[in-house]
Amino acid sequence: MSFVLTEDQEMLRDTAINFTRDELPVKHLRGLRDSGKNGADPEARQKLAELGFFGVLIPEEYDGVGMGMVALGQVMEAQGRTLASTPILQTACIGASAILLGGSEAQKQEWLPKIASGEVTTALALDEGSHHNPAGVATEAERDGQGYTLNGAKKYVQDGHHADVFIVVGRTFGEAGDTHGLTLFLVPRDANGVSVQTLNTVDSHGAAHLTFEDVHVPESHVLGAADKGMDILEPVLDRGRIALAAEMLGSSRAAFEMTHDYLQTRKQFGQLIGSFQALQHRAAKMFTDLELTSSCVSAALSAVDDQRNDIAELASLAKAMAGETVHLVSNDTVQLHGGIGMTDEHESGFYMKRARVQEALLGSASFHRDRFAQINGY
Amino acid sequence: MPYDAPSDLDTFREEVRDWLEENCPPSMRTPQTEDEVVWGGRREKFKNPESKVWLERMAERGWTAPHWPKEYGGGGLNRDQVKVLNQELSRINARIPLHSFGLWMFGPALLEFGNEEQKKRFIPDIIHGRTRWCQGYSEPGAGSDLAGLQTKCEDKGDHYLINGQKVWTSYADQADWIFCLVRTDPTVKHEGISFILFDMESEGVETRPIKLISGSSPFCETFFSDVKVPKDQLVGEVNGGWKIAKRLLQFERSSISASGFGAARGSGALELEDYAKIHVGTDSDGKLLDGDLRGRIADHQMYAKAFGLTVRRSQEQAKAGQEVGHTASIIKYAAAKMNQDKYELMIEALGTEGLGWEGEGFDKGAKMITRAWLRSKGNSIEGGTSEINLNVVAKRVLGLREHQ
Ligand SMILES: Cc1cc2nc3c(=O)[nH]c(=O)nc-3n(C[C@H](O)[C@H](O)[C@H](O)COP(=O)(O)OP(=O)(O)OC[C@H]3O[C@@H](n4cnc5c(N)ncnc54)[C@H](O)[C@@H]3O)c2cc1C
User: Each residue of B47-106: pLDDT tens digit?
Assistant: First the structure.
């Protein structure tokens, strides 16, 4: 397990931090919101591709840069800092991982270079209710001769409103609640029978409800073995959870820094408010939680690169810790800014709103506490 | 012999393993009760004779202080070797051969600030557990505000004369020597403090035990009246003791925390979730029946895991040359919270079984946990209170200013 970045990883981190700071600051998200773009920015997507961010996990033979999960974590943390709405999590992490771990050689050759170049973005269409529940899939996938026919609906698909290809989890066997009998499909957005209902979400990143009505999927678009989707889905979800935890750490850090600055500039009663001990202790506790979270995120990221056997446990640890920290910090950011923190004009509200979405995606802290307990046998 | 390359490290591991196999007595590979813990010193009784053998063998190799310099009897090992040694020790569940304030806090400070003569005189006895040290810091009027201490130390030409009182001096009644903060200049606060050492059998030293809520009494009030101390027992400069005092507190905080107040897992005893399973019960999937308690246990275990990873991260960063100063306070604060939460949950998981005090009718292990629960309340007080540690983080790490 490694807690110290290599030189290459540090360079990537600096590039990512500078890029999001200069090109995708919170002001940019505000702009997307106010102009009704609902989190989508094709121009930014192109720049992310040019920087190689979509190919961080993809090996060089498929036109990626093959730097691994710790490196991707740096990009995620950077985008978390400014709440940037990008397809990195869904595409560079989840989409690329699904194809890397589950795809045939032909599928890898077809899709990975397109992902690395930013030509194609993906979105995982998994959950069907309002809580993360991988086994709860009911969407029917019925064999139809040359492939499968999909019928069902997916709720709150992150990036679903603009992704080019959906990775749809369907049920080829058994019933909702069974962990076996799931199958993964690559479904282009423009396939017949796919309808997309765009959602305006509290974090201004947007999302979509998807409906699949007699959607035909050819055999060549099945990802991994039929009925055994969970074998790929779980490791892919864990990578996503870890990457998302890194993003949450970035958001927490940035919100904390903003608050820290405010404590050192705002005066009341003739004093800097940061000299009041009640606030100093809150700041010190937040900082302690940030440090603990940072250790968990680093451990989880490097566990993927080291192919350790405790990735699932560390993923749940990182996601749950990051969830608690991001709420603590973003709520206190509003509180410690006083009235100004409640205004739309100020940035603190953006952090709090995004925190709720981050929490709900890929399993809340309570989902992951439960999973952690289960992994540890109690 | 220097072992630097990784392959040498493997050789080292093999040697350690063989040596432990031969030298660690079987009874030293079992969990121990509190009264079996070895603190060393002139009055050590060694309840189990094998613990004496174990201490002597480990001390002979310098492995009670594996990273201290060889010239004073330490192990002279580098960080990687120490890690290997610790891994091998915990692999066989070996008992800690020696608990010692000398090893944890006084020794490291003396190695940094003592003169050559003092190191030669005191360090080997610490390593071998021949001298048991106590910490004379707190006074009735100077706890958190430690620099407010008043114990007077006068220069009498060929010796110093000490008068005053200390309090909360852990194990003062069983210690051989004390490292003590005294006031050598009453006109200034921090710059008037010196760091001095003396034998607890010196004339004029008196100790009175204080009983804790846990029923045990490891603490004392300690009184000094006209205690004569030879001049070569002052460490560092006259009035230069505060710097040493603070450094020692860092060692204290790190050593307390590195052990998580001894809460480290894998000591062979039952874990929190095991107690919960036994006393609360499980459903057919093996899940704890009380879902709320289960969630809080998971929450705690995650915190404990995050804590362990943070200690490791800070060690790795230090090794890579990164600045990790003041993490001692963050870690001490978190360690106290973690250990206290653990015992609260333990007591809750035990239910009425956890409410025994003494005598028959309660499980022996459960009674130990009840005492440990009460003792853990001191974790956020000893070695600097949680509030003081948060102050340190706010001021030193976050640079927040003092109230004007
Ligand atoms: C188990 C245990 C072992 C100990 N072992 C030793 C030992 O071996 N040798 C030794 O010398 N001492 C020892 N101590 C003493 C310990 O260091 C002191 O108890 C501690 O520093 C607190 O001092 P105090 O008890 O005087 O509390 P006080 O300083 O009076 O504090 C009372 C309360 O006020 C708070 N407080 C005080 N100042 C501030 C501030 N500036 N900001 C915010 N809150 C503040 C404290 O956090 C605490 O909650 C031990 C204590 C315990 C409990």
Answer: 999 999 999 999 999 999 999 999 999 999 998 899 899 999 989 999 999 999 999 999
Poorest-confidence range of A285-299, B98-112, B158-172, B260-274? B260-274
Residue identifier of the C-alpha nearest atom 40 of ligand 1: B388
User: Is A50 exposed, middle or buried (CB count within 10 Å of its CB: 0-12, 13-18, 19+)?
Assistant: exposed
Q: Which residues line ligand 1 (CB under 6 A)?
A: A 277; B 135-138, 143-144, 168-170, 378, 381-382, 384-385, 387-388, 391
| Percentage, residues of chain B above pLDDT 70 | 95
- Residue A317 near residue B305 (C-beta atoms within 8 A): yes
Residue B5: its pLDDT value, please? 56
Taking only the tens place, the pLDDT of each residue in A171-200 is 999 999 999 999 999 999 999 999 999 999
Cβ atoms < 10 Å from Cβ of A227: 16
Amino acid at B223: F
Q: Read off the pLDDT of residues A325-363 as tens digits, 9 standing for 90 and up.
A: 999 999 999 999 999 999 999 999 999 999 999 999 999
From the centroid of its chain, how far is CA B353? Answer: 30
- In chain A, residues with a C-beta closer than 8 Å to the C-beta of B298 are 369-370, 372-373, 376, 378
User: Of the ranges A101-115, B206-220, B250-264, which one carries the lowest mean pLDDT score?
Assistant: B250-264
Are β-strands A165-171 and A122-125 bridged in parallel, bridged antiparallel, or unpaired? parallel
Give the Cα separation of A272 and A250 in Å (integer).
26
Helix, strand, or coil (residue A290): helix
B104 and B134 Cβ atoms separated by less than 8 Å = no
Single-letter code of the amino acid located at B33: T
The interface pTM score, or ipTM, of the predicted complex is 0.90
A189 torsion bin: left (phi>0), alpha (psi -120 to 50), beta (else) = alpha
Phi first, then psi: give them for residue B205, nearest 5 degrees. -100, 130
Tokens of B387: 């509030």
pTM for the whole structure: 0.90
Return d(Cα A71, Cα A55) in angstroms, integer. 11
DSSP letters, B218-277, are: -EEEEEEEEEEEEGGGEESSTT-HHHHHHHHHHHHHHHHHHTTTTT-S-SSSPPHHHHHH
Gap between the terminal Cα atoms of chain A: 26
DSSP β-ladder status, A194-199 and B152-155? unpaired
* Residues from chain B contacting residue A260 (CB–CB below 8 Å): 398
